[in-house]
Design a protein that fits this description.
four-stranded antiparallel β-sheet; alpha+beta
Amino acid sequence: MPDGYRFDAFISYCHHPTDRSWAKWLHQRLETYRTPRALRQRGVPERLRRVFRDEDELAASTDLGLRIDEALKSSRFLVVICSPRTPASRWVREEIERFVRMGRGGDILTLLVEGDPATAFPPPLGADPVEHERSILSAEPLAADVRPQEGESVRRRRQNAALKLLAAILGVEFDELRQREQERALRRSLLLVSGATAMAIVFALITVAAWSQRNTARARELVAISMSAQSADPELAVLVAAQGIAATWPWGHLVLPEADQQLHNAIFASHVRLTLNSHSGIVIGVAWSPDGKRLATGSQDGTAKVWDADTGKELLTLSGHSRPVFSVAWSPDGKRLATGSRDNTAKVWDADTGKELLTLSGHSNTVYSVAWSPDGKRLATGSVDNTAKVWDADTGKELLTLSGHSGAVLSVAWSPDGKRLATGSLDKTAKVWDADPGKELLTLSGHSNTVYSVAWSPDGKRLATGSRDNTAKVWDADTGKELLTLSGHSDPVYSVAWSPDGKRLATGSLDKTAKVWDSDTGKELLTLSGHSNTVYSVAWSPDGNRLATGSWDGTAKMWDAETGKELLTLSGHSYPVYSVAWSPGGKRLATGSQDGTAQVWDAETGKELLTLIGHSADVYSVAWSPDGKRLATGSDDKTAEVWDVATGNISATLSGHSDTVHSVAWSPNGTRLATGSDDKTAKVWDADTGKELLTLSGHSNTVYSVAWSPDGKRLATGNSDKTAKVWDADTGKELLTLSGHSNTVYSVAWSPDGKRLATGSWDNTAKVWDAETGKELLTLSGHSDPVYSVAWSPNGKRLATGSSDKTAKVWDADPGKELLTLSGHSNTVYSVAWSPDGKRLATGSWDKTVQVYAIDIHNLMNLARERVTAHPSSENCQKYLHSECPPFPKLVWW
């Protein structure tokens, strides 16, 4: 604890008998408390210093005001007893105001004994009662509450309240103090009992230990089951991994690291975002509205449905066909829907009201496919009667019949310019037709079985086909030359669709999967597993971010079409992302890129808020000012810039380095900036004027990283000379050299308490050092390539590292144990950053993206619950679990 205080706490209370009795109880509880041994071994004091309470300390005083001022100045914390009587107490109000005027507002604790925050907290606390209620109910030791609670004993309530206050005063976490107190209580119980009672307790402990071992073994079994189910049914894998988390949770809120790891892996593998399941038959057709806000489905149950594409809410049911609906298509303006059915007709519907507008009768057999011309004036239909037809979309008049196939026409598609039609047939060919006279232009022969689907690329230069021969093919639409064969499905390909930008193809198959392919190279990018039967239809959302699939299992699903993400993927930079940083409030993220820009993003939605353009070369580093109003960037153009985040304007340019600026960092008070450069120096600048204040010379090579100690008195630098150094931030005097790495030290970071330094190095390790002595404390070995970034969690208990092995890792910072490996990037992870609350981790990569991960176990479980969009199939549950499907588990605090 810091020196200079006579009292650890000053108790402020209204002199009402009830409040006085609470003050006496608290005074006695705090002064007699003895810290558990495990915490004392870490340097936490055995007992508190004296606790001030006016009736004990001022009984004989003649100058109460002066003595109270002296006592307040000499107290580390002010503890306010809060009841409905407190706001009326002049003494309490004045004591709070005096404490705040001393600059100590952040060291005020409260004990709520009666009423609610709105009526019990005095105005000087200056807090929103709702926020106080949240702090009281949270696990953070900001406020304590002894009000009666249903299901909780008075003794337990008082004990927890005292422990919350003690945790804050001692500087430890409430959960840890409570756990240590429970362990001590158990030890005391063992010492007090004897004979048969002692044996019974020992037996109980053995039973609990055995129970814990059984549940740990069960958790490991569930992890293995989740891993085996992941490729076939990622949603089931998520559910089972969540069960693995819950298996050990009741035993001291223990989370098995491998269960935590597998839940991350399963979430990352699962791309399903919504499951639509109110059709009573197979879902055969699926289509997005042009604005991407609605989805239409056609089913064997004879209906088509319209859904909200964000919520999955059913909006309309279109009933009118007498047989299954095989195809659905939106008009280009999104106002009408067309459907094709086994009743030999196509219909046109009002997409807002569901009113039937037209019936197109002319085919002599099932209408398998329907498509609108790009101008919305014509409709094309393909039928089992071996023909395709073109119709006037307003009148329903038949305009053309395309005859040429020797088998059923199962698919029809318009070219983007509306001049050509493509058809796919049971006769193993696709054909291209002139859409006006109906003249046959090309026959595409190459498949060895039925062509189920045809689709034009957005530029009209290529055609894709899906076939019963288990392949999809890409063709030159002008010459008919075969360009690519996509082989990967193990069963017939029923559907094929181009992404809006033409760079990817999606296919749906009898093998129960959909796949995403690179349309230029034919490389398989994604396999979407989750349906329990044939995938009949695939369709891209207009923005290309989502895929919809319709399946024989009676559901439609919406999928994230990216290569994988957990909470968020930020894609907007055109070149590698070198740096990522959270705003102080955790609501925004800033990124710096090789594309010469910095960007600001909404950290909840991933929306790009601001692009900062001003550097003439790569932006290697970004850093927020402590108040979140400014952003600093360091660049290959030899400068650092300071930006006003509200306007996007440059407020200062720091020019003085003679080479690349690799790193920028704000002093904790926001008045100074530090920079590290290829010119072998670090510099300190006035953040308002841009004036150079100090040059730190001592490294023999590039200074890659610079970081301020939490108190702003020291600077740490990392260098390609294999060392890190610690400097006096006011004088520039070199204080320490940390030698131990065998290669470049690329990153340095101070622990939140300023007692330790972490370094990341090209020798594939991170190290932890004593920041006072320079002694090496830990080496974190696990990455297979250079470590580019290292960051402490806000509570100092964990470290995150990013590496060119394409992963980020999370470590326990005391024993150095690896806790998590986050595999979401396809290239080097240059930067890692914790959110201010420690619940999320952001990573920036050479792959041009930023990934955001859920590290808090409750956030992770909530995310997992969202990813389980439908109850897994009984078949898969029996296959992997040998039981019925379990419900999603809950983690309960007790």
